[in-house]
Amino acid sequence: MARLLTATFGPHTVLADEFAVVGGVDRVLIYGSWAARYHGNVGPPSNDVDVLVTLSVRRPDRGAAYEAVNAPAAGGPGAQCGRCL
């Protein structure tokens, strides 16, 4: 059941939805311990989600990017973001 919920409502789904509306974003990649656990690698539970955002040639809409990161579905204000656009 936990795997079904993760597949349906996990960070990868939320990030895809939130960044789909941000102009200038080419790709949003999840890496690190969360991605490793999702793909079945054994280890301690992940405490965070590492995200890499690649940009297209045109300049991104920073306001929309910040809004996507701070959206309630993405953890909302106060959610820790290492280094955002």
Would you spell out the secondary-structure blueprint of this structure?
Blueprint (H helix, E strand, L loop, with lengths): L1 H8 L1 H9 L5 E7 L1 H6 L11 E6 L6 H8 L16
Antiparallel strand pairs: 1-2
Helix pairs in contact: 1-2
Oligomer: single chain
The major pleated sheet works out as: 2 strands, antiparallel
User: How many β-strand stretches?
Assistant: 2
Task: Report the sheet-strand fraction.
Answer: 15-25%
* Molecular shape: elongated
Domain count: the total is: 1
Could you state the order of secondary-structure elements as H and E? HHEHEH
Explain what you see:
Helix content is 36%, strand content 15%. With 85 residues, the protein is α+β, with helices and mostly antiparallel strands. It has one domain (2-74). Strands 1-2 form a two-stranded antiparallel ribbon. Helix 1 runs parallel beside helix 2 (11-19). Residues 76-85 have low confidence and may be disordered.
Key traits:
85 residues, alpha+beta, 2 strands
Would you kindly provide a brief summary of this structure?
The chain has 85 residues and is α+β, with helices and mostly antiparallel strands. Helix content is 36%, strand content 15%. The chain has helices at 2-9, 11-19, 33-38, 62-69; strands at residues 25-31, 50-55.
